[in-house]
Amino acid sequence: MSQLDTVNRILDAAEVLFAERGFTETSLRTITSTAGVNLAAVNYHFGSKKELIQAVFERFLTPFTENLDRELNRRESQAQLQLEDLLQSLYRVALAGLAREGRDPKRFMRLLGLAYTQSQGHLRRFIVSRYGASYRRFAGQLSDALPQVDPVTFYWRLYFMLGATIFSLSSFDAIEAILREDFGAESSLDETLARLAPAAVAMLTAPDVGAG
Amino acid sequence: MSQLDTVNRILDAAEVLFAERGFTETSLRTITSTAGVNLAAVNYHFGSKKELIQAVFERFLTPFTENLDRELNRRESQAQLQLEDLLQSLYRVALAGLAREGRDPKRFMRLLGLAYTQSQGHLRRFIVSRYGASYRRFAGQLSDALPQVDPVTFYWRLYFMLGATIFSLSSFDAIEAILREDFGAESSLDETLARLAPAAVAMLTAPDVGAG
DNA sequence: CATCAATTAAAACGTTTGTTTAAGAGCTGA
DNA sequence: TCAGCTCTTAAACAAACGTTTTAATTGATG
């Protein structure tokens, strides 16, 4: 087993277990025994548990933001500012790009949800410093497509949209199971994104009552 | 110090610390030293850490659902099915009711977010079994106010709405700090709810493209 | 084949965790 | 006043945690 094997086996196991249980609830012993490697391998290859967590996110977020940036470049050169298209860029191009590389987009959203809600200060700092530029660029193009919306209102709605997206997609399997039981209706991720995009657009473009 | 004092001091400390750090990241020793009581008091009065977590939620959710049920009763007797009013019931009556009883609605939303995202199976079961009826009743009235929306679409949008609400309100302080820095605009919870309600309405009533 | 660095392995480290125990204190009612 | 119950206290428990150490093993290079 080469070094690269060991590192990837650890990342694979950690990614699945973190998404299932959270960071604190997943011990290094569970990760290493699932991966079939020695306990000390984590500290040897990654340094610490914190750095392993960051590495798991790096493996997800780097291709994701690369896909997103490519799409934002394409859009910028064409000066298109269609709102629904922009969300489709986020939802389809970036997520489908992940899927094409063999990474589960649902697991990605689940991890992203954890990054927001589990109070891991180091992780938030890591993500902001590493991927904050792409996020601000996307938010900027989104804001440009909504010139009629007051900036403060826009940013609140951006967080509403993020919440709706991260929350529902990170709990996708649970919600899907409930709907399947109650309505016998199977839902795919693509189908859910096709529901989410127009709902998000409606929320972003709602008449601004100008609270405050 | 009476027994009731000890119990309440523990609940007060646990509520704040859980909301700040999460369940696993908060030790019983931190809770009891913050509360100024003996370590063993938690196991004596509550039985275990899990039951303490449930007790914290019970103290929040019981008055919240009571307020909500009262409002739903009032609406049912009047046969009003105005969508925006219904959300205002949830947002203002229930949350403002909490505030009137001295309980911080922001902390409540933060805890509710944790309940969804931190994988505490026992807590989810506790909440569903105890407060599921009120939730289904609210969802039912909301569904009745949207007769034109396909049931499966409705339920997905319900989760989108829950996500937007829980996510943005549970991170209220963090978001507010960012907006204050970037725009110098202070945001109150009431103001944010006044932004959230119409955004949620717009999302729920968006044209149903009928995905699937 | 011998050498040397990189990697793996097993074991132990010191902390921290939730929980339990056993003794003490404080109050109540007879 | 004293028995009896409730509650608090201090101490200890075993288990689990992340990390470190030291030795064995591997694989490439001279």
TrEMBL record, chains A, B:
DNA-binding region(s) in UniProt: 27-46
HTH tetR-type domain segment(s): 4-64
UniProt cross-references to SUPFAM superfamilies, sorted A to Z: Homeodomain-like (SSF46689), Tetracyclin repressor-like, C-terminal domain (SSF48498)
Pfam families on file: TetR_C_30 (PF17939), TetR_N (PF00440)
Database matches in Gene3D superfamilies: Tetracycline Repressor, domain 2
Keywords: DNA-binding
Stored InterPro entries: DNA-bd_HTH_TetR-type_CS, Homeodomain-like_sf, HTH-type_TetR-like_transc_reg, HTH_TetR, PsrA_TetR_C, Tet_transcr_reg_TetR-rel_C_sf
PROSITE patterns the UniProt entry points to: HTH_TETR_1, HTH_TETR_2
Superkingdom of the organism of origin: Bacteria
Keyword Isomerase: no
DNA-binding among keywords: yes
Protein name as it appears in the record: TetR/AcrR family transcriptional regulator
